[in-house]
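anyone seen this seq b4? input:
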Amino acid sequence: MLIDPRGPRFAAALTSAVLAAVLITGSGILLAVQAAVFATGALAGLQRSPYGLLFRVLVRPRLAPPRELEDARPPRFAQAVGLAFALAGTLASLAGADGLFLAATGLALAAAFLNAVFGYCLGCEAYLLLRRGTDRVGVRA
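predicted toks r here
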């Protein structure tokens, strides 16, 4: 499936705002909500995630068509990576492990911020590296 590459950047901007709010408030509940957003994007697809729906309904109709579309698999993998960090942070919050909570949330925020501001998707790059590695050893992804 091909997607508008501006959608994941829009989602990354919203994710950055949510994760910054998590760090400011220390809210494990808000991090759990963000984990649910990541889960939806990773499992149901970017178009079905709450941020993807907002982009499709509110933002994309006001933009010119994209010059090119991109493969949805790398950003979807990035959502799964974000989910892993958000779940780790949520569990750390529940366990009272404040350091792990802050570290997991901060790392997720850094990745989302890089995508939102610079268009550099760490999870997408990890996906591509994994693909190259599995292609070299003959494993199909």
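DSSP finds six helices and two strands in the chain. The CA atoms of residues 72 and 95 lie 35 Å apart. kinda curious what u guys think
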